[in-house]
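Field reference: sequence -> structure
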Amino acid sequence: MFPNSSNSGRPPFPPKQKQQQQQSDCFNKLPLNTPPTFLPHQQVTDIQFNFQNEVALLSGNLATIPAVTQQPMPNGNGSPAHMSDAPMAFRGRKRLSDQSIPHDVKRQRFHSHRSETTIVNQAVPLPVEHRYSFPGSNQSPLFHAHSIPDLTGCVPPLRYTLFPDPIETPLPVAKDKLSQQVLELFQACQQQTCDLNRKELCRTELQREIQQIFPQSRLFLVGSSLNGFGTRSSDGDLCLVVKEEPVNQKTEARHILSLVQKLFSTKLSSYIERPQLIRAKVPIVKFRDKVSCVEFDLNVNNVVGIRNTFLLRTYAYIENRVRPLVLVVKKWASFHELNDASRGTLSSYTLVLMVLHYLQTLPEPILPSLQKNYPESFDPTMQLHLVHQAPCTIPPYLSKNGSSLGDLLIGFFKYYATEFDWSHQMISIREAKAIPRPDGIEWRNKFICVEEPFDRTNTARAVHEKHKFDIIKGEILKSWQVLRDKKDLNCILPLRMTIQKR
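Structure field:
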């Protein structure tokens, strides 16, 4: 167990008196992830997820989730001891049994109870307590100035008890072999609820431990785990927010991460292995959680990751062809060893932006620019505790383009093999088109330019060797030619092996 977790295997009795935890002014606007009541292991694994609280959290209807303060309880020597907020399965530090992880993934529909869009209710039904990593768990006067939108038919797909359930959006119909293969891969490899659950359990425990060093900090799960594009093998991305103001990534962030790394390699060494401080432009601590067997990257105050998580989540669900297409491209890039920014190739985030850009630039677009169409919802200056609310009011995009998944996949490779001008153009989903490269140092002499939609940096800056760039272009060209002629996904990505490795 983590050092600050309870040794008791039974649910604790509530304390007689509550003690309010003081917060600094800058965190009055940030969420307080609060601990749940413990339940036995069997109840944790068999729990049915509470959709009402998921929606209350993501839609901004926080009135149904009262804030609960952390309650220290005295231990044997009279000093305060913090009870763990992890369910029994996690506090016992035993790996979840293989039986709790579904291996036969059935055909799913968006909005289904088994979909990864369900944000995991950790151990108990929540209206009293919650512990999610989303911004917005503290009530703020700013919330009362916004009316609660009708979520029916809007995205991200969420269930809300005050309104009728949204009409389920089925996966695209596959009428040809290639489209069927894309769907088969998607259904087998998309992230499942149990995958997200394991990441969230780790996040909650780590937040408790890190708050021993930085009491006002909050730890957020971001990236593919929450943006709709996660797979069963996706790593976890964590953002440690220590204050609302920007942090100097070269000095302050590195210092904070060095303390976190020390915590991981000493006090938590029984549960966290291989913690490494990576001194990149945005420094991170890489580590592996021994319980969930998930690799994590943890950064400090890189809050753009919180913003783009919800932007991408909206793109993921406004059109039902987006997620399957992104997943197959990510698997293709991984198979051809093109999906590793640390080795000079493309990050998963860059690959997602490339697919979204392609879908925006078709003669009959399948995606719009959300930042152009809904500027108030994706304002880069929006306060963090409001970021998660914005996508809930955006309806599905109704495209006149009826192309199949197979045709779109072939078109993706054709676009980047023959149409996109790598030397003079930059990919921009913010503008929904290829735009001329800026003249700044960020873009000069770069082989691939992909604009980050909020801070407008180059997400493909890792591709800094011509040799790697040529390999990427070569694989794209070869895949287009083979797929165009054969129309068989196995020719560029072995399906059976990929599904087995999911």
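Note: The two ends are 29 Å apart (CA to CA).
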